[in-house]
Amino acid sequence: MDPIWLLPPVGLGVGLVAGVALHKVLTDRRIGTAEVRARRIVEDAQREADTRRKTTELEAREIALKTRAELDEETRRRQREIQQVEQRIVQKDEQLTRKLDQIERRIADYELKERSLLGRERAIVETETRLSSALDEHRRKLEAIAGLTAEEAKRQLLVGMEAEARREAQLLTMRLEEEARETAHAKAKEVLATTIQRLAPDYTVETSVSIVDLPSDDMKGRIIGREGRNIRALEQHTGVDLIVDDTPEAVIISAYDPYRREVARLALKTLIADGRIHPARIEEVVEKVKREMEQHLKEEGERACFEVGVQGLHPELVKLVGRMKFRTSYGQNCLQHSKEVAWLGGMMAAEIGADVKLAKRMGLLHDIGKALTHEQDGSHPELSLQVLTKYNESPAVINAALAGHENIEPTTVEAVLIEAADGISAARPGARRDVLESYIKRLAKLEEIAMSYKGVEMCYAIQAGRELRIMTKADVVSDVDAHQLAKDISKRIEAEMQYPGHIKVVVIRETRAVEVAR
């Protein structure tokens, strides 16, 4: 074989051997390097651990030193506080010692003064004993000279003086009574005549109708509404009768209650001005007018107090005074009557020198019970007593309110004047009318009977008392109960009241379902 062909295999073998050897050398070198690195990492970790251990020991020592320093500081602070407390205790002890010394000195002084006073008292007792003996001796000598004892002389002197005084008193009383009889009657006439002449208002008896002017006769049809639904809604919510007749451009509101009549009048005027007249709008306007009437009552009360000159009334009393504008007594307006009584009482008080302000206050409030509604039980004097007591009026004002109506004697001169002023105001020609009052009482009695039944929400006597319209609560009164309620009320009216003709009792039960679309 040719040697030249043997060279490649031999070179390949030699290269393999050399590569293996080189790989081994490199591997050993890498292993040695890794071992060195490992030893270095271990040494670094050990050094770091030693460093941290030393740092921790140093921090622990610092904390221990700081804690010891804080404890030492706290100990020193406590010692200082204890020293301060000890000093205060020592000071208090010294103060107590000084005070005790002062008290002991004062006790010693008081003992000395007491012994001195006891000596003086004994001396005074001895002096009184000697003076008493001297007086007794003097009295015995006087009795021996006069021939009378001291008691007998005193009794004779008193008897003579008493008889003389009684005789002079009788003569003086007779003379004063005679003078009083001669002048009192003339003076009373003069005061009353002067007062009445100074106050001479025109009287207009309260009527039971109000007239509302219309812009045109076309408005009557809108007020009546389709099939009369608008006029029925007005009458239902206000409790009045609306009379739409041939009177040109006018509608008549008829009701015995001036308050209801005024509410209906204002509501109708608002509806006419607004132009929207339908049941829902009518109900809304009536409720709004009722709310506004509360403010109107307050304004009327304030105006009346200003006119009369009465100040310092409770706000609720002012409102009740305003409500009297819508109350009548035998056809006479209660507010006008009360103002007139206040004016008359004030002028009479000025004439005789009494308290004018108190008299005016009494006059304005003497009929305040008439302003309360049927919701309160009792006569108007009893209601006056309740409301005046509730709002802290003086006993003199309360007595004046009761003296003119109950069997109660007036306790002040002003109360007597108010009683006289009340009579003068009521007795003026044309001031009152009994027929209207009896008519109003009959209508009020009808409503009172209806409101006494359970489930009745509101009621109105309309058609001049010929119809009693009753609105019930739908959740309390059923349809069957409504029929029975009408029968029960009609039977009770027949049993308890006297009236001409017939009275129609109408019970209305209405169910409303209300939802709001949002």
Descriptors for this entry?
flat; 5 domains; 14 helices; mainly alpha; 518 residues; Ribosomal Protein S8, Chain: A, domain 1; single chain; three-stranded mixed β-sheet
Describe this structure as you would to a colleague.
- Strands 1-3-2 form a three-stranded antiparallel sheet, with helices on one face. A three-stranded mixed sheet has the order 6-7-8.
- The chain is 70% helix and 7% strand.
- Helix 4 runs parallel beside helix 6, helix 5 packs across helix 6 and helix 9 packs across helix 11.
- It is flat and about 180 Å long.
- The chain has 518 residues and is mostly helical.
- The N and C termini lie far apart (116 Å).
- The mean pLDDT is 79.
- The protein folds into five domains: 126 residues; 51 residues; 105 residues, 2-Layer Sandwich (Ribosomal Protein S8, Chain: A, domain 1), CATH 3.30.1370; 120 residues, Hypothetical protein af1432 (Orthogonal Bundle), CATH 1.10.3210; 80 residues, Cation efflux protein, cytoplasmic domain (Alpha-Beta Plaits).
- The protein has 14 helices and eight strands.
Number of strands: 8
Shape: flat
The class by helix and strand makeup works out as mainly alpha
Low-pLDDT windows of residues = none
Helix coverage percent of residues?
Answer: 55-70%
